[in-house]
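Predict the 3D structure for this chain.
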Amino acid sequence: MKKVLNKIYMLVIALGLLAPACADLEVINETAPDAERALANPSDVMSLAGGAFRTWNNTNQGYEAVALAMGVMGDYVTCSWGNSAMRDMSWEPRINSFNNSLTYAYFPIIRTQWQDSYRAISAVNLALARLNEGMDFGGPDQDALLEAWCYFVSGVAHGYLGLDFDQANVILWDTDITTLELKPWEEVCAAGVDLLDQAIAIANSTSFTLPPKWVGGMNMTNVELAQLASGFAARILAYQSRTKAHNEALDWSEILTYAQNGPDFDFSPEQGDAYDFYDEYWIYARYSGWGRVDMRIINEMDHDYPSRWPTSGIWPDGDPGPADPDDARLETDFEYLASNAFPPDRGYYHFSHYRHSRYDYVAAEVWYGSEPKPNFLAWEAKLLEAEALLRTGNATGAAAILNDPDGPRKVRGGLDDVSSSDPNLLRLILDEKDIECFLTGAGIGYFDMRRTDRLQPATLLHFPVPATELEISGLEHYTINAVADGVDGSAGDWTGWDDM
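Done. Predicted structure below.
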């Protein structure tokens, strides 16, 4: 069936701001400001565009979105509480076909992820429309700043819609919304990368510095914006795969180029009220009494430590207590807790002795944070580079990144060098990302498990288009029944180092 969206769709995704192309909507929101008046001033347009990434970031790194659910689905964090669908999405064995219904208590996690992504896209599209109409933003450099930024935000938002959902819409600034069709995730991810390419090209052709408020107080130049856009492009291309086979068939030379041009700095927006950047995913995944670190991650730092809590709750040889790691970061970034707070009747598999403590300083004064908190580490780009080198036949180069004496694996972890001939080299690269990049960018752990066929059987591979959008668009309602088919549900599983 051809999936054409109803023209009213923009009312849902545009924060009430109607683009000129939508002037003939059949249903009119009488309370919405008129776009011609509300965005007649260049400073208003800049402000609208400047807040767009914050809109996307605060949802992608948010509580009422898919980040926490993906965390438990990937056996990355563990939590038995119902909030944000964490309990429903972490049953073992999996019974987690997502209930795509307005009456489902945790339906808002997909509705919010979807709507706020398109709110960000709509905001920058309106700005691009004004730019293309000839509005003066202060000269060529300022025009380039706005244009590069808008394509960056749109590229990131589109790319993540492709990462999170089975299908979505590609909405450019000049798209005729009366002809929109839902596109499969592959096409949406590709569109996101195309938009990032435009941002990179513009940023590399001029000189500017972004307003600090746009990026959480950071001082970011055109060069750094281009690097961050390249990093996001590497993320989207590498993390998009739903299966190991698809992942291995990607153009890893292309991913290598993006990763090598990725950020050489940590993207760390200041959290809290100063710039209105918030990372609730991190907050609740490590907050006392809430999320803990899955045993699988602890096992990556101490290969003899159990990767799973006993199903019976009884340790055959006694509780293992604290791990005895080779990796020094287990003692600096993770806190041992002797007891568990989760109800046993919800499954002992939720239990863990560890919480993540590395970024506790961010919340030392305010519980939701008031210091810079990274969500894209430069090391993540280097690890994507290492993986791309390995997958393109350069194992020596991949090992060299892990063995870099100035890299965190050596400096903070104190680990021995790895050999380029180690048959577990890819696994060591992915483990290093789990450890060093823990609770930075939402979804990383889940995406890595998904694309390597390591999600538990029948774990959901992506979310459906929210029922609200299907209803508004006049499309047939559907949900996703996550069976172990490798299409909508994982057909793989994972094994810890202790079970090899």
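The chain has one domain: 1-377+437-500.
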